[in-house]
Amino acid sequence: MHDTIWKTIESLARRFNDHDERRGLAPQEQWTMQVLKIAEETGEASQAVIGARGTNPRKGDSHDWSDVHSEVADVVITGLVALYRMRPDDAAEYLHRQLADKAGKFL
Q: Could you tell me the pTM of the whole model?
């Protein structure tokens, strides 16, 4: 499963790289836009939580928790694509090291 996830992430990253290269964006500009995309997806997850909790009286119960799950998955996928775009040679290994380091400090 691990390999399948990263192969899909690689395909998505290449698709975005090709698109941005055709638009004339330099690598760091591409990375900047991808990080901003993470922020956009996080906002959509936040909006879904607000809708699931019904805390916006104007919108009411506009979402349910399955919407939140989907939006959180979008945040994760977008983050993995961003990491791969910035570190195509070692994204999976880098993530593994970062996870071990951060978990080790907490656990």
A: 0.92
